[in-house]
Amino acid sequence: MSTTLSTADLPTTHSAAHDLVSELFDTLDEAPSTTPQSAVARPLASNVTPSGEFAPISLFGAKIDPLTMGQAVQRILGWTRAGEPCRYVVTPNVDHCVMLAESPAFKATYRDAALVLADGFPVVLASRLFGRPLPERVTGADLVPALFAAATPEQPVTAYLLGAMPGVGEEAARRIHAAWPHVRVVGTYSPPLGFEKHDHENEAIIERINAVQPDLLVLGLGAPKQELWIQKHAARLDARVALCVGATIDFLAGNKARAPQWMGRCGLEWLHRVATEPKRLARRYLRDALLFPKLLWREYCK
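The structure corresponding to this sequence follows.
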């Protein structure tokens, strides 16, 4: 049975979904602007595994790992030193939640991910509303700098940047080397449009990456392309961890500006992105705004 969403489905649950969204934003209004570490929402005790780790939280068709930024950094860096096959990390936001409901192929990429970290502010708020609290946002754009900042002389980090427009990766590498002396960018590549459809181009990219064996493969190809590509090719990659992090390479290069911190804390980063890239993002955000209430209602009714 198809799970594709349609805006035509909305009227049947419009009122209830609207009430649920209102409750979601009441949760936001009641939350303090800054939350002390001791007061951060934590997963329920029932979500703790016998080994003492927090079990993933099921939400919007994904199993999201309830980790803080520090815990995520620790786990990923541990993987880079383990010498095991390539793992990959995904970071769900509202747009991903919509795609998870519509696309079995995209949902399969989440199933195979080693780590699923909540990027979207509404995702975190919804988790608290439904009694399955995630501790905080762990955005891809914040995760990569946090990983770089954790590199030390004793345990340096190597990275490969795959994505963004020509020249952007090189500028990002220059800035990374200036800001984090214990991180070495061992390669960058801006693949041509539609590269994922051509075997010879995919083979060439795999060879580029395997030649330098990076600890971190930073994927800036956009969703769902980056998730679909890494799921298909991870088994052949000689990289320790791949990070599906969208526009992060552009942010690192200064090619795109991130929202002010206060907008991020208030969950308004999307508004900044629409204002700076209206032609590319306005339609997507409008569609997500129409469909996400229905996802909330579905989740509430489970």
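The chain has a mean pLDDT of 86.
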